[in-house]
C-alpha cells in the first residue's frame, strides 16, 4: 500500500507562495514554515511508533544554500516532535566554514544520528576529525530505539590489500566480523544504515555484506532479522528488494550530480564564482527529506516530498536516457512516499 503524500510538508504552491525562492534563488525558511504550520493541523500522526526525520547528501561544502536547507529540515522536525533525526552521509567536512551549518543541525534537541559519507573527509581531513566534529564516537555502531535495532555501517573502507585512494567503497573484514556478532545478539527487527547503497552495486564487496545480512535469522521462527537498508550517495529516489530485504535510497537534500559534460550555470555568476561545483549539478528548488515511521508490528512508512529542477532537467541537458537510475525512474526532484512491509520476529 502506498501512503498518502504528507499533509505537513510544503506543497509547491505553498512554498512558492510563502517565499521568494523563485525570484531570489534561495530558501526563506521563516515564511515557508509559516505555510507549513497552516497545513499541519490535519496531520496528527500515530504517536506510538518511532519517527525519525531523515535526509541524505546535503553537501554543505559544495552548495550555496546548505544552511537554509538544513534550517527548513530542523524546524520541520522540531515542530513535528519526531523522536530523532538522521543524516545518511555527505553532510559536511570538519572546518570552521561549516560551524553555522552544524549549529543549526544541533538545534534539534533529541538524538542526532550520523552516517559517514565518502565526501565527509574531503579537503585532507580524516575520519577521526570528522567524527569529533560531529560529536560521534565510532564510525560504525548500533543502537536500539522504538522496538528496532539500527546498525550504522561505514562503507568507505578500501578493499583489503589496496591503498586508500580516490573514494573507496567497501566494508573490511573487521567491520564484517563485528556486524555478524552484532546481528547475532539482537532479537529485534533490524534496519541497516549506510552511505553507499547495498541494493545497488556501489560497495566493492557488496555480496559479502549482503550474505551477512541474509544469514541473520531469528532462531525461533527462521525469519530474517534485517528488514530494511537505507542509504544515500546516488542522489536518487529508489527502492529495490534483494533477498527479501528492502533497500531504499533517500534522495539528496540538494541536487542530482551531472558532471562537467553537462555544466550549466543554474543560479547566478556570483554563485558560480563562490560555488563553482554547482554548475555540474541539477539542483532541487526545495530541500528534500522524509519522516520515516518505524512500526515493529510490520511496517516502515516514509513521507513523500516533491520539488522541481532549478533550470533544465538532466535529460534536457543531454544526460543519458539509458543510465540505470534513469531507466528505474529514480532521477527526479522528489522523495517518494512508501510503505515497506516485513514479517515481525514473532507472529
Structural overview:
By secondary structure, this protein is α/β, with parallel strands linked by helices. It has one domain: Metallo-dependent phosphatases (Purple Acid Phosphatase, chain A, domain 2), CATH 3.60.21.10. It is 25% helix and 19% strand. The chain has 10 helices and 16 strands. It has a 6-stranded mixed beta sheet, with helices on one face. A hairpin with a 2-residue loop joins strand 4 and strand 5. Helix 1 crosses helix 3 and helix 7 runs parallel beside helix 8. The protein is globular, with a radius of gyration of 20 Å. The N terminus is likely disordered.
How many DSSP helices? 10
CATH class: Alpha Beta
> What does the radius of gyration come to?
20 Å
Q: CATH H level: which superfamily?
A: Metallo-dependent phosphatases
Oligomeric state of shown chains: single chain
Give the fraction of residues assigned to helices. 10-25%
What overall form do the CA principal axes indicate?
A: globular
Please identify the structural class as seen in this structure.
alpha/beta
Distance between the termini: 20 Å
The count of β-strands is: 16
Beta-sheet strand percentage? 15-25%
How many domain units? 1
The largest sheet, given as strand count, sense and whether it forms a barrel, is: 6 strands, mixed
Mean pLDDT: 88
H-E string: HHHEHEHEHEEHEHEEEEHEEEEHEE
* Largest sheet strand order: 3-2-1-12-13-16
The low-pLDDT segments are: 1-8, 15-26, 31-45
CATH topology: Purple Acid Phosphatase, chain A, domain 2
